[in-house]
C-alpha cells in the first residue's frame, strides 16, 4: 500500500476530488495549509500598496491507495491539479505499512 500526499492550489480541490472518485478512490483527507516552494511566496497589491506574502495558501490531500492503483491515482491528481502556472504543487509517495478499519477490524488493502 502507498500513502500519497499532494499539495495543490485550493481552487483545484473539487476537480481532484471528483477525478479521484471516478477511478474508485472513495476516501481522502484534506487540510488547509500554508507554505512556499521555489517561488518563496508571492507579491499582492491591496489598495494600491504592494505586500509580500511569504506563505501561500494551499490544500494538502492525503490518500491511501493499493499498490495497483498508485500510478493511476498519481496521474489523476496530476491531471486534475494542473494549471501550468507556478505553484501547481507537489506530490509525495510514502510506503504504508498497515491500514486498519477501526469499526470492523479489517486490515490491509481491504481496510482502504
TrEMBL record:
GO biological process: regulation of nitrogen utilization
Keyword field: Nitrogen fixation, Nucleotide-binding, Phosphoprotein
GO cellular component, one term: cytosol
Molecular-function GO terms, alphabetical: ATP binding; enzyme regulator activity
Keyword Nucleotide-binding: yes
Record PTM O-UMP-tyrosine, positions in chain: 51
InterPro entries: N-reg_PII, N-reg_PII-like_a/b, N-reg_PII/ATP_PRibTrfase_C, N-reg_PII_urydylation_site
Subunit structure of this chain's protein: Homotrimer.
Identification of the protein by name: Nitrogen regulatory protein P-II
Organism this protein belongs to: Gluconacetobacter diazotrophicus (Acetobacter diazotrophicus)
Amino acid at each position: 500500500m502507498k500513502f500519497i500526499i499532494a499539495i495543490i492550489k485550493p481552487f483545484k480541490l473539487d476537480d481532484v476530488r471528483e477525478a479521484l472518485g471516478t477511478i474508485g478512490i472513495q476516501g481522502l483527507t484534506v487540510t488547509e495549509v500554508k507554505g512556499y516552494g521555489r517561488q518563496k511566496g508571492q507579491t499582492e497589491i491591496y489598495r494600491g500598496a504592494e505586500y509580500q506574502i511569504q506563505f501561500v495558501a494551499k490544500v494538502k490531500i492525503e490518500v491511501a491507495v493499493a499498490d495497483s492503483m498508485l500510478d493511476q491515482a498519481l496521474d489523476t491528481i496530476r491531471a486534475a491539479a494542473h494549471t501550468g502556472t507556478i505553484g501547481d504543487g507537489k506530490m509525495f509517495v510514502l510506503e504504508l505499512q498497515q491500514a486498519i478499519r477501526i469499526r470492523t477490524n479489517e486490515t490491509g488493502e481491504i481496510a482502504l
